[in-house]
Structure formats: structure tokens, C-alpha cells
Amino acid sequence: MNFTLLLDLDDTLLVNDIDSFLPNYLGAFSKHVAPYLDGETFVNALLAGTHQMVQNRRADCTLKEIFDQSFFSLVKVDPVEFAAVAERFYAEVFPSLRDLTRPRPQAVELVEQALGRGYRLAIATNPLFPLTAIRQRLEWAGLSPERYPFELVSSYETFHFAKPDPAYLAELLARLGWPAEPVLMVGDDLERDIVMARQAGVPAFWVPKDGAQLPEGMQAPAMQGGLEQVLPWLDSLAEDSLLPTYEHPVAMLATLRSTPATLDSLCRGFPDGLWRKQPELNEWCLTEILCHLRDVEQEVNLPRLRKVLEESNPFLPGQDTDPWAQERQYIAQDGRQALAQFQIARARLIEALEAMKPEDWNRSARHAIFGPTRLIELVNIIAGHDRLHLQQVHQVLQAARL
């Protein structure tokens, strides 16, 4: 059975009490930067930058860029010089924090058995740290990325959203190419792992800390228990019982927000000469896909949304958009500009959706092809269209790099 496991790191794969780790981390870091920055100023700026990362909603800025904008507006230090100082901290000082953690043997067993079954594994840790800090903590857990082929490790250099925002999990899934197989989130934190996963439409396995109980009135996760119980529990289920469901408005919005962010990450640094490389004859290249997404957003999705919100049961004509690739000569256009224009249009769509009243999701319309429909169904189609073309982008990028 094909399967994708999304694994939280701290207090799931690695025993790491944040109440102990965080003050020691801040103390060690502030001591390291003392020759350059006042300790209190540094800590306050670091925490402010972290807060901005957690709150970020921009799809065109990575969490690192959001952090840097906040941090360097509060401290008087050269960003290039500070980057070298931070690099030395993570190379020379951060490893000393290992003694505050301890490995969880069941984690290694879970990962090895899951990989042996051919499962896809991603490290779904809160991407508020640089990749080097996350890779080191994986080492501390006995799960060296050099040995274990995790398909993706989320970090602040390439991600745009953070836990508990369900857009974080949607971004993770999008970066994996929106797996068509069952998916399971495994984590210890009820808000940042379990509730987030449910909002994103993904089943979750809760690994509670010693003695932790599910709060009264809270919806139970798909399952709870120790890491050693994850695979036996999976074996007891029907093969398709953990397929994600993205039909709830919160999950749809998470998908819609993740698409421009994921495209931002996937397209960064992609060689100029490959943007117009078609995988096969008559198959769209990256530039053509981005132009298609832009024009559909600007000329189909946004006008339809406004029409449904402003009129009573309006008629929505069908629109065949595929011929636009040839008619508008997408391949000759600027792919990066198309992405930027799509991001702007998508932000407008999301703003309109988030401003709606709950009852607006049930507003009716008459579609030339689908017949009677509701706004929630139309938005679900947009989200499905996103997933389809992100899968296409993954295929195009993979073919271009071969």
C-alpha cells in the first residue's frame, strides 16, 4: 500500500521539553552574540521575528525573509555579518544543547519499518528554525537525514507558513506533489499537530506526553497511542480509510493559500533556460502552467466569485481555458511575471472568501456545465484545479532536471 507519513519532530520523534530547551537555546544564542548585540535586545528581536513568522500570510515571502525583515528592523547589525555569527552558533554552540534532549527508540523503529514498506516520509516540524538546526535535532533522535531518505524536511528557508496554521500542512502536502494515497499526521501537540491536521483535512495520530488526556469536548483524533502502535494500527485499517478529505471550507482555504506559496518555493532558483522546456511535445512547460493559473484566476475564478456574491442565483457560463495556451502564446511570455500576477490575484480571491459570512458558502448559482451548484462546490473545484496543476508542475520540474 502506498502511504505518506508526516512526522512531527520535537516530543514526537525526539524527547525535547520546549519549556527547558527554549530558555537554554535563547541563553546560549544571546551569549554567543554578546560581542555584537545586547542580550535583551537580541532576545526581544528574535522573539518578535518568530511571532511574525507564526503570523505570516504572505505567499511571496519565506519565513526566513519574514524573520529577517522583523529582526533587522529592531537590531543595529549588518545582516551579512550577523549571518556569519549565526552560522557559527549553529555549527559550534547549538550541538551542546543535545544533552537537553534524548532519543526515542520507537522513533527509529517506526521510520525504519515505514521506509522498509516503501512509505513516503516527511518531517512535519514547525519550520521556525534553519534547516541545520532541524537536521541536528534529527541526528539527536538517531534519524540522520544522511541515512534516512526523508522526502522533505520543513524549515524556515523554504516554507511560508507555520503551525498551527492549516496552510502549513497544505504547503507540506503541495511540496510533496499532493499525494493521491492515504496520509497520516503523527504528532504530540493537540493544537499544532492534531487540530491543524483535522482542519487541513488530514487524519492524525496523537502521541500524548506521559499522562496527557484529551480535553473534555475536544474531537478525538483518528487514533492515539505510542509510536510503536502506529504501524500495527495502520495494518488494521482498510486501505483507503485514511485518504485526506479537503471539502471543508477551512481545508479549501488552506489549499488556496498554499498554492502560490508552494509555487514560490518550487520556482526559486529554477534555471532560466528550463522555464520554457516542455516535457513532451504538446505538454505544457512551467511558464505555460503559470500563465494558465494566472488567467484562470483573473478571468474565471474572481469574476465568478464576485457574481455569486453579488447576484441571486446567477448563471455562470462555461469557459474552455486550455486553448488559451496557444491562442495567447503562453510559451513566449514571462513565467516569473505570470507567477507574481497569479499571487496578486489569488490574494484577492482569498481576501474575498475570508470576508464572507458562513452562510455565503451556500449561495447558489447555475453553471452551464455543472448545472445547479453552490459557492462551496465552486471553491472546491478551484482547490482541486490547484492540486492538479501543482502535480503537473512537479512532473515538469522533474522532467526538466533529468
Description:
The protein is an alpha/beta fold and 402 residues long. Helices cover 50% and strands 8% of the residues. The chain has 14 helices and eleven strands. The chain has a six-stranded parallel beta sheet, with helices on both faces. A three-stranded mixed beta sheet has the order 9-10-11. Strands 2-3 form a two-stranded antiparallel sheet. The longest helix is centred in the last third of the chain and has 27 residues, at 375-401. The radius of gyration is 23 Å and the shape is globular.
Structure, briefly:
The protein is of the alpha/beta class.
Task: Provide keyphrases for this structure.
6-stranded parallel sheet, 11 strands, 402 residues, 50% helix, 8% strand
Write the layout of secondary structure elements.
Elements: E1 4-7, E2 14-15, H1 18-32, H2 39-55, H3 63-74, H4 79-93, E3 102-103, H5 105-116, E4 120-123, H6 131-140, E5 152-153, H7 166-175, E6 183-187, H8 190-200, E7 204-206, E8 223-224, H9 230-235, H10 249-267, H11 286-310, E9 315-316, H12 324-327, H13 335-354, E10 364-367, E11 371-374, H14 375-401
Parallel strand pairs: 1-4, 1-6, 4-5, 6-7, 7-8, 9-10
Antiparallel strand pairs: 2-3, 10-11
Helix pairs in contact: 1-2, 2-3, 7-8, 7-10, 10-13, 10-14, 11-13, 11-14
